[in-house]
Amino acid sequence: MSTQRILPKGVSEADFDRALAGLREALGADNVLTESDALAPYTKIMMAGADEDYIPSAAVMPGTTEEVQEIARLCNEYTIPIWTIGTGKNLGYGSAAPGETGQVILDMKRMNRIIDVDPEVCTALIEPGVTYQQLYDYIQEKGYRLMLDPPAPSAIAGPVGNTLDRGVGYTPYGDHFMFQCGMEVVLANGEKVRTGMGGIENSSSWQVFKWGYGPYIDGLFTQSNYGIVTKMGLWLMPEPPAYRPFVIQYPDLEDLDEIVETLRPLRISQIIPNAVVIVHTLWDAGTHVERKNYYTGDGSISREALEAIKQDEGIGEWNVYAALYGTPEQIEVNWKIVEQAFGKSGKAKIMYGEEAEQRGGGFRYRSELMKGEMNLEEFGLYNWRGGGGSMWFAPVSQAKGSETADQTQLALSILDKYGFDYVAEYIVGWREMHHVIDLLYNRQDPEETQRAHDCFSELIDEFSKRGYGLYRTNTEFMEKVAGTFGEPLREVHKTLKNALDPKGILSPGKSGIRQ
Amino acid sequence: MTMTRRQLLRNGAALGAAVPVSLSTGWVGQAMAEGLAINGEIRVFGSDRSSSELARGLRGAGWRPVEAGRFDPLVLADLPRGTLAAGFTDEAGMALLTSQLVGRGRILALGRHGADGHQLVSQRGAVVDSLAQADSSWQAALGREYARLAQNPPSGRRDHNLREAGTAGTRELSFLVRV
């Protein structure tokens, strides 16, 4: 129980009150939140951290870039740390909570303007509060034949926040940062800068040419705390005339090697152009099946229970969801190549259309995601074990069978040691794979929460020892993960931080970066 | 491709599907007939016994429960500002509910109810010592408690664990929020 007022670290109550008065004047009182019940949604974390470590002192909601500039100036004056969120849907990575208690949340939700969508060059320029659903609806209303690339919590999340955290989707534009083009950024001192071609007044190429002139700096504003992105350009895929989603399932754990070795050349050559997913049984079923219906014993779920799920759902140990795009003729040609490649060993079961729809698993919602349509089906994973605990462990691997097999075995052994389930998928890029494991646990049980924390920590350590690094992590483990990438890189990050934000007010601790 | 809002609602409606559909409640009309509401309306989400009992408790404490159907967190954005809402959902629904309220709503209280007891977190002052009532269900007692908390001003987070074994069967998650 706590009713004590939360203050930013190192800031006196009087200074904080003066800063809040300034913020209310700049934004309007309704856009500065300080009451506990209004701040409560910003405290709901799913990771295995202590609740009291993630409580904001206030939240502010600017509506314009000019207001963001004023917030930066005020917070600089009083040395108040701010933690920026877009739509606040980074569930399992820190949600909408601050990086540490006392920080002021800079909530960009009200900045939700779609500034431009160009159907000819297939680009968009948007603000951070725009959701995928909002942009999708806009495109539909305008009648543009353009596709989005939503991540799994698609409808409610936003393209800017997801891209800045280097998130992924499932269409051919699945690597979101790869398809980003041009930013407007407010720096810690309140100055505004436009990247790429945006520095030229009235430039018509801000959203079509990424590199601009001189050093390319957009990457500095992803997974970082060097500035506040207030506008971002992105590329949109033209809607293809034809589309064929399909699923290939394999029965055994060790089939992963064959899957990856078969898939890699098809993916690199763009025969299969989208961000394919290789989904393990428990993820494929876990979106709509509850664990307690199959297993109530101690420890990780038993092999018998897992086989029962496979049987009942009609799914494999591994389930590959992919799609072909193009003209019907192109699809037929590429389909033959896919069938031949996966048909060689006789282990794969290849399905599309009605046959795929009739099986269990996630074919329907995966098919929607792979053509850029919205759904929220993956939230069902939170019902698998219950208790509200979820952390994404997401190491990167080469797209090589031997490496993915090694990662899977390592993850299984560590999860089993701590009594958790392997709820996992591989998201296949061109040459690499994001091995995404949802560490689901009962956050209401302190012992289980501590165990989840220890398990996550050991996963980081053991994967790092074998040369595997994470592409993204939650706020509880940002410092630790940053450490696995070595001190020289951290020193560069710190040098940049000191140059761009000398008072360290922007999202202190993001990706382990501080003054 | 054009029915985007409908598609979104369809997807959202899939959440909370663990709650069985049973529309046998008649508590809305009953509340109106009794004319007891003195504090205003509360939208009550859910369509099973738990939600009808929750509504009974709210009504008994002077609120007018308005049946809002199966819980869909996405419809919260469409409710008029200031609307009070209560009900039951599952883990997926709770994750969506709390994230949807970020910057646009208030969490007054949340509850977790299972065979091992009740855990209530309130932002509106202390929680009662017990939901066990000789003459009513725990859901109705929760409704009375939520009715009381709805009238309190914000006062900071209070956790309360009520170890009352056997008061709930399967785990249910409750909420009291203002959008």
TrEMBL record, chain A:
Keywords: FAD, Flavoprotein, Oxidoreductase. The keyword RNA-binding does not apply. It comes from the Bacteria. One of its GO terms (molecular function) is FAD binding. GO terms for biological process: lactate catabolic process. Pfam families: FAD-oxidase_C, FAD_binding_4. Its cofactor is FAD. The keyword Glycoprotein does not apply. InterPro entries: Cytok_DH_C_sf (IPR016170), FAD-bd_oxidored_4_C (IPR004113), FAD-bd_PCMH (IPR016166), FAD-bd_PCMH-like_sf (IPR036318), FAD-bd_PCMH_sub1 (IPR016167), FAD-bd_PCMH_sub2 (IPR016169), FAD-linked_Oxase-like_C (IPR016164), Oxid_FAD_bind_N (IPR006094). Signal peptide: none annotated. Residues 52-239 form the FAD-binding PCMH-type domain. This is FAD-binding protein.
